[in-house]
Amino acid sequence: MKDNQIINLGKYMFGLCFLLGNICLLGYLITKNDGFAASGYTLLILGTIINLLLVTGLLIYGIAVHSKFYICLRAIGWLMLNIPVAYLYAVIGINLIFK
To answer: What does the pLDDT look like over 80-94, one tens digit per residue?
Structure first.
C-alpha cells in the first residue's frame, strides 16, 4: 500500500465513525426518538470492534513491512481521535436518556 492510502484509511474510518456518531446524537437531541439512542450505542459497540480490528491490522502490517511502521502509527493516531469523542457522546447520551 502507498503511504497516503494507509493514512487515508485511518482518516476515512475516523470521519465515518465521527459522522455516524453525530447523526445519532443530534438525531436523538432533535427528535427524542429512542431509535437514534439505540443506534448510537450499537455504533459504539460495533465501531469499537471495527476500529480495534483495523488498529490490529495496521500494527501487524507495520511490523511486517517495517518501512511503513510510522505511517501505520499515524493512521492509528487518526483512529484514536474517536476515543474521547465517543466517550463524551456516551456520557451525554446516558445523561439524556436517564434524566
So the answer is: 999 999 899 889 888
Q: What is the Cβ-side half-sphere exposure of residue 19, based on CA atoms within 13 angstroms?
A: 6
Residue 1 makes CB contacts below 8 A (sequence gap 6+) with 61, 68
CA dihedral (59, 64, 66, 68) positive or negative: negative
d(CA 92, CA 79): 21
- Sequence-ordered list of residues with C-beta below 8 angstroms from that of 61, at least 6 positions apart, any chain: 1, 6, 68, 72
Question: Per this entry, what is the length of the chain?
Answer: 99
Q: What is the pLDDT of residues 56-68, one digit of tens each?
A: 999 999 999 999 9
Q: What is the model's pTM?
A: 0.86
- Upper half-sphere CA count for residue 2 (Cβ side, 13 Å): 3
**Exposed, middle or buried: residue 3 (CB in 10 Å: 0-12, 13-18, 19+)?**
middle
